[in-house]
Amino acid sequence: MVSSVLGTLFGGILALFMLVLGLLPTIDVSTLPIALPEPVSRSLSAINWFIPVDTLLTVLTVWIGLLIVLNAVLLIMHVVQSVTKG
Questions:
Q1: How far is CA 38 from the centre of its chain?
Q2: Residue 73, exposed/middle/buried by CB under 10 A (0-12, 13-18, 19+)?
Q3: What DSSP state is assigned to residue 29?
Q4: CA-to-CA distance for 55 and 40, rounded, in angstroms?
Q5: CB of 5 within 8 A of CB of 83?
Q6: Cα gap 41→47, rounded to integer Å
């Protein structure tokens, strides 16, 4: 009973979120006027030789995503436990 209500609620929230995202315009990131100055670009490429920044950013992104999912699951478990205890 509780799981079906929560499933319906979160499914509706997800559908609403996807609708809002669908209404937003798409942005081509390559056309944005963001450019690093030449000395900064050279410094970053030198740092990238020792520390692979792209791999580091990928790992960091996955880590943050997993933390968000874990916190959401813990929140849902807490709500379910408080509902079932009365």
A1: 31
A2: exposed
A3: G
A4: 20
A5: no
A6: 10
In tens, the pLDDT along 49-73 reads 887 877 888 889 999 999 999 999 9
Report d(CA 63, CA 10) in Å as an integer: 23
Spatial contact of 6 and 78, defined as CB atoms under 8 Å apart: no
User: pLDDT by residue (tens digit) across 15-25?
Assistant: 888 888 888 77
Q: Taking the CB of residue 61, how many other CB atoms lie within 10 A of it?
A: 10
Q: How far does CA 14 lie from the centroid of its chain?
A: 14
Copy the structure tokens of residue 54. Answer: 């792209």
Tokens representing 50? 């020792």
pTM of the model: 0.45
- Asked whether 80 and 6 are in contact (CB, 8 A), the reply is yes
